[in-house]
Amino acid sequence: MASAMTSSAHPSARALSALSLLATLGSLTEAADRLGVTRSALSHRIAELEKSLGVALVRKAGRRLRLTEDGERLLASMGDALERIEAAVQPFQRDRGQIRLSTVATFASHWLIPRVAEFQMRHPRIEVAIFTTTRPVDLGREDIDCAIRHGCGAWKGLVSTLLFQETLMPIAAVPLAERARANPKVNWQGIPLIRARSRFMDWSKWQEADRSFLTWPTKWLTVETRAQALDAALAGAGVALMDMAYIGPHVAAGRVATLAERPLQLKTGYYFVHAAKARNIHLLTLFRDWVVEAARPFRSGNG
User: Fold this and answer.
1) Which is it for the CA torsion 296, 298, 300, 303, positive or negative?
2) Residue pLDDT, tens place only, 151-178
3) pLDDT, tens only, 22-75
4) Cβ-contact 39, 25 below 8 angstroms
5) Fold exhibited by the domain 98-303
6) Pairing relation of β-strands 158-173 and 256-258?
7) Can you give the pLDDT at residue 302?
8) Fold of the 13-92 domain
9) First-to-last CA distance in the chain?
10) What's the burial of 192, exposed, middle or buried (CB within 10 Å: 0-12/13-18/19+)?
11) Is the pTM of this model over 0.70?
């Protein structure tokens, strides 16, 4: 029963949220589980709310709990206030435990995601949310904390840390590679060269470094992304140019082979970037230190 005296303390948003959830679920146990508290703690929270208002807010209806008329009137008068409060405080709660990172899909799939479990083991309380896009996000206006970008490292208003320089290496499925490596000037003829629209100049860069290359009519297989180019090479559809950072596991497993003695080093690289005055700089520093360490073998060219 609620107390006949009304406390001068204002009801807390936490107690009101608990009442709203209890009204939805109708079960003290289920509501407690959803909130991550004990059944007795939730019961105490509701009792304190009733005490502060001086009315009974819940009643038993068989094995379920239902709101009293006062309880229904209270929630009805609040409307969507609880949702708006939750939406307002969520970014501040996220600052304490979540990193939202943007990068391109190929880097995410073939380099970052296979390694991010190590960061999670080191920092189990930090949540990582990875978003992929080819568009450079606006870290000052969008709800993204940091990014891993491809370029030369100079972005106005951003702090950038080099992970590794980009490389290009021609690769092919092993049967094709064996044929092509025997005599590149002869046996590359007739083998499709795979190019991605997102990396359309890569083969031109390779030709600039090797003037003897592409002196015969070339058959192209054109795909949309670099990840698709890698998939096509793995399937034996032709020769693709890939960053050494992406192909290590495939080479080690014997799925593809390299077709040059050494990769072509490019001036561009992958950089971890964030705004100079990022809200959750303490989390970003932890992630930056980890990702720089994870990238160290690739900076030396041995990745």
Assistant:
1) positive
2) 998 898 899 999 999 999 999 999 988 8
3) 888 888 888 887 777 788 888 888 888 888 888 888 888 877 888 888 888 888
4) no
5) D-Maltodextrin-Binding Protein; domain 2 (3.40.190)
6) antiparallel
7) 47
8) Arc Repressor Mutant, subunit A (1.10.10)
9) 68
10) middle
11) no
